[in-house]
Structures are given as C-alpha cells and as structure tokens.
Amino acid sequence: MGTSTAYGGPGGGTPLVPSWLGGGDGGDAPPNPASPGVGPDGQPPADGAAPPAPPNRPPIPKTADPQRFSGARNSFTRFAGSGGSDRASLGRAVSKYVSTSVSGARQGCTTHGRLSRCLSARLLGFLADAQARGVREALRALDLESLAGRPIAEIFVGLADYICPGAGTVDEGIAREAYIETIVELASEGLTDLTTFTPDQMQTVFELYATHAIEARICNDIGTKAVTMPTDAQAAHRVEQQLRDFIRGGVSDALTRARSETPNLTPERIQVFVDAVYESAFAILQTLGDAEADQ
After folding, report:
1. Does the residue 123 lie in any domain?
2. What number of helices (H) and strands (E) belong to the chain?
3. Where are stretches of biased composition, namely Pro residues (predicted)?
4. Fewer CB atoms < 10 Å away: N or C end of the chain?
5. Burial code of 175-211, b = ≥16 C-beta within 10 A, e = fewer?
6. Rounded to whole angstroms, how far apart are CA atoms 43 and 270?
7. CA distance 289 to 97
8. What is the tens place of the pLDDT at every residue in 206-246?
9. In angstroms, rounded to a whole number, what is the distance separating the alpha carbons of residues 222 and 293?
10. How far is residue 170 CA from its own chain's centroid?
11. Where are the alpha helices (DSSP H) in 87-151?
12. Residue range 74-91: average pLDDT?
C-alpha cells in the first residue's frame, strides 16, 4: 500500500522454505548417484573397497498448502469492503497471515523477512555509528562525507544504495520501497536533525522501516490485486492507515521489549537484536489480531 506496487501474490504452490535458504543451489538437479560398487569415474575401485558415499544434499522443500493465503485474503477483503469499520476482520486477516500463511512467527520471520531484517540491521548500525562517532564520521566510513550537513531527507536518500542496494527481485523491491516510505515520514515524525538524534528517535526510524516492510510483505503475499478496495478515496485511505497503525503497534511493542532486554546495543549484537524484534513483532501481531477478532 502507500507507494508500494503490488503484485498478485505468490502462487499457492510456492514452498514455505525457498530453495536458496540453508545453502541450496537454487534448483539445479543433483547428479545421479553412482551405482553400488562403482567409483566416481564409473569404474570399480582398484582395491575392491566400497566407493565413497555421495555428498549430502539439502532436502527438497515441501510444497506448501496452496490455500494458505486464502483465509487472510478473505478476511482482508471483508475488512477492505467495510471501509475500515470491520476491525474484527482486520484482526483475523493479520492473525491468519501469521499463523497459517507463514506458519507462525518464527517461520514468518525466517522465510519472509530475511532481506528486510538484514537491511534493518544496516540502517540501525549506521544510526548507532552516527550517534557514537558523529554523522560526518559515519558518512565518511561509507565514502559519503559530502552528505554531511545536508538536510536529513537528502542524507537518507544518499544512503539508499548502501541501505538497500538493488530492486530487481520482489524482496528487494519491498525493502527499497519500505525505505522510501520511511524517508517520506521523517518530517511528519519530527525527525529533522540527524546530528541530535536520541535513542528514542533511532527507535522511531527503525520502527517506521520495519512497519512499512511488514505491511508491504503482507499486502504482496495476500495479493492486493485480488482484494477490492473501496472506490471512495477516504475509505481506501482509512483501510491503508488502519492496517499500518495496527502493524506499527505490534512493531513498537516488540521494539520496546527488545530494548528492555538489550539496553546496551553493541555493533556485534545489532543483527541479533533486529531478528528478535521481527520475530517478536510477528508473534505480537498474531496475539493482537486474535484479540481484535474476538471483540
């Protein structure tokens, strides 16, 4: 939503765990194993010993349930059709997305947010460096010192290729658009001077980015082209805004919890911290969704 360009959603038969996770080679078929008693060259070993065992290969991913997005999609369609008034359907849509579409908070975090989590860590790492050593030094480390002293929006635009390089795949497109949406909201959130950023303001930037990334992922997964939005512009805006606010509430709670558990964030722990926030956010969103659906 927002400036995101939606597609029709992933096919129902797409595996929950992509072949590129866990060291897979992306689809090349493994060679036929050698026959018993035959070496790699097709000849029996000279000493009569058994040939070496073929190397272990990653298992073929299981085909996912082709209907795993239908529950979330149907509930979101009802929510959109209500113009944003059917909060119970919004809650069911988000809850079903986490519990069924992506098989729970941990699986959803692992398979549907890997790139966004990596880029979130990169963004948070830059902000932490800017706070610790100063904006100029943090930019100099990236060979972007010429951006020092520029307005905050210009600095973030200049950082785009470092934070989220490339936009050729769906995941890269989602990550980059989430970053652009974050830049658009900086001024409205009162984030105008990077040189005076506080830890709370750093949290706000991270919160904005994670919210937009999760929102875009949900919308693309359930297939916004398959959901009929209200023709009234104000009603359509309410639908978009309520979904975004719902997600941001979950991200904010997860981030607050993570900060209480890791008050001193070191560069070495940034990725672990970000991963924990995303997984906790998915879990909180499911809980909030269930609560909303029961009202």
Report:
1. yes
2. 11, 0
3. 51-61
4. C
5. bbbbbbbbbebbeeeebeebeebeeebbbbbbbbbbb
6. 53
7. 10
8. 999 999 999 998 888 887 556 778 888 898 899 999 999 99
9. 18
10. 11
11. 87-96, 105-112, 114-133, 135-140
12. 93
Contact predicate 177/214, CB 8 Å: no
Per the structure block, which two tokens stand in for 249? 């509430």
> Shortest CA distance to 121 belongs to which of 288, 285, 277, 15?
277
- In this model, does residue 35 exceed pLDDT 60? no
Residue range 106-127: mean pLDDT, rounded: 79
Look at the block and give the residue holding tokens 């949900």: 218
Structure tokens at 254: 């997860």
Average model confidence (pLDDT) across the chain: 80
Domain containing 108 equals: 71-294
Tokens of 274: 């970000």
Does residue 1 belong to any structural domain of this protein? no
What pLDDT is stored for residue 155 in this prediction?
96
Cα–Cα distance, 97 to 245 (Å, whole number): 17
Residue among 186, 215, 181 at smallest CA distance from 127: 186
Number of domains making up the chain: 1
Cα(259)–Cα(203) distance, rounded to whole angstroms? 9
Inside any domain, residue 204: yes
Confidence tier at 26 by pLDDT (50, 70, 90):
very low
Token readout for 266 is 């070191």
Helix axes of 270-294 and 233-261: crossing angle, nearest 10 degrees: 130
Residue 5 burial (C-beta neighbours within 10 Å; 0-12, 13-18, 19+): exposed
* 263/257 Cα distance (integer angstroms): 10
